[in-house]
């Protein structure tokens, strides 16, 4: 039996190692909502399974319509307007526990920003928006923004993009996606991060029940599952005075949209934060498999040892 125990102990220690290297994680979804052209924004905690929104607190800035978590510092940032009627856009650092925002600085690019996303690999912040300083641009411009001082630098014209919605997000593998409405058709684009060129990838198909010119005004990839979530406006466009807000998901392969449910009025930005639960470690799939191997190996080794002893 002594020669069995070292092997059994080695496998047991392997299970323990796999356990503590695989803490569980979940994705917490936040949203910013406001009403009106000069509306003050409120930070919300949104249930990604039901779309139910719970207010966290006032941000203290107007029209926070782009938001994301820094992938390195895990700080929450948003692009908002100063609450002084000036309509000047600024980068804001938001306390996710209270909602309170602190100005970082203005991008100074004449942009009317629609969404933003941090690249996972290096935490560079990208933003989409109309550039009113350069009339040569066909629509949206892709811009990088410093999280240190808010200063922006235009990368280039997104060219093929349309007019309404302007949702931007990095996938877990750092592909940059852009979802926009062009001539009443919603299109998911892939964006060249060096030039800004947006290339149509797939048509986005909203459910027939959303018949009031639906469009996405914000999106974010779930950092745990990789599913693309979207904030959806139904109505309130060029021909419809009724405006409804929904949370949904988009299949990036087919373009099909699944509605999760109605959410807070005025939702204009969403962002996921990956939360690790280190104090309650769980076995990964590999850990579970290894545990089964340990138990089976231990049982077979003990049985073989007993048979050998009986034969003697």
Major pleated sheet: 7 strands, antiparallel
CATH fourth-tier homologous superfamily of the largest domain = Kelch-type beta propeller
Could you tell me the mean pLDDT?
A: 85
List the uncertain runs: none
Task: List the secondary-structure elements in sequence, H or E.
Answer: HEEEEEEEEEEEEEEEEEEEH
What's the count of strands?
19
- In the CATH hierarchy, the third-tier topology of the largest domain is known as Neuraminidase
* Fraction of residues in β-strands: over 45%
- What is the highest CATH level, the class of the largest domain? Mainly Beta
- Give me the CATH architecture of the largest domain, please: 6 Propeller
Distance between termini? 14 Å
User: Reading side by side through the largest sheet, how are the strands ordered?
Assistant: 6-5-4-3-2-1-19
Helix content: 10-25%
Structural class by SSE content? mainly beta
**Looking at the structure, what is the overall shape?**
globular
What would you say about this model in short?
By secondary structure, the protein is mainly beta.
Q: What do you see in this structure?
A:
The strands form 4 sheets. The chain has a 7-stranded antiparallel β-sheet with strand order 6-5-4-3-2-1-19, with no helix packed on it. The protein starts with a helix and ends with a helix. The protein is globular, with a radius of gyration of 25 Å. The mean pLDDT is 85. It has 2 domains: 5-19 and 282-311; 26-279, Kelch-type beta propeller (Neuraminidase). 14% of the residues lie in helices and 48% in strands. By secondary structure, the protein is mainly β.
